[in-house]
Amino acid sequence: MSWAFIATWRMALEGIQEGAKLLEDNGNCGDAVETAIKMVEDFPYYKSVGYGGLPNENGEVELDAAYMDGDSLSIGAVAGIKDFKNPISIARKLSKEKFNCFLVGQGAEEYAHKNGFERVNMLTDRAIIHYKNRLKEIKTRDLTPYSGHDTVGMVALDLNNSMAAGTSTSGLFMKKRGRTGDSPLSGSGFYVDSEIGGATATGLGEDIMKGCVSYEIVRLMKEGYTPQEAADKAVSDLNNLLISRRKEAGDISVVCINNKGEFGVATNIEGFSFVVATDSLSPTVYVCSSDNGRTTYEAASKEWLDDYMKTRTAPLELK
Ligand code: SD4
Q: Which ligand 1 atom lies nearest to the CA of residue 48?
């Protein structure tokens, strides 16, 4: 019997470390996912998840999150929710509902309020500085507002062979009010089936949604592909399809594990990082490269890791 825990981006490291302890002690995969994602949501220096997430073009932090139980296939999700501390917990609670399990905007906020979830103003002073600086840059240079995006997505397998997946994001910086990406959408931002495996995606939601890439990876694993083969095939097929039909493909990165605890990762960008822990691997950050539809990765160096935290927490000034 094995356990495994995987997540997108370096920002998941502390959460994966905590969740790995739970899984090692025979804890539940859903508790591991929720605990770990809450840690990412609560860390103010991550600009794309939870508290400290960057706002939409109106200066409002609108958050998306989802939770899926791989045993029952129950899904809960929120989109465009404002001023609640832990969207992942609201999504998990919604996954227990038979109806009305994906709520947006005001409806999600009313549900969260009624169920006693903690309210917090999620817009930090640091995010306001990013917002003001970006407004100035957009005026003076021809910048696309849609840069900077690091959704956290996680998949866990516990010692009872149960699996769960979760995502949480503030979506794209400077998005239109109400814009929703792939992260809360089943099959696109995440999918998990305890009898097969699970996957989660990060990148340009508008393009990830065109290929339902997380579901596709799980489907390929069911057909017998290893997690690494399934991830590479799903990402490179979608990337090539988008290029052939539309001449360009946005960023697409995925991580996945199967129900034996084997993992896979794929990306069409340079520098995608992920974190993985299993019963035979302590929590490790890897950095990926992509070459012709094949993804390779190596453990992040100490310099890379030091630089990551230094740049995230560096003082920020109004331009
Ligand atoms: C979105 N996929 O809202 C999210 C953003 C993201 O890494 O993943 N960033 O489109």
A: 9
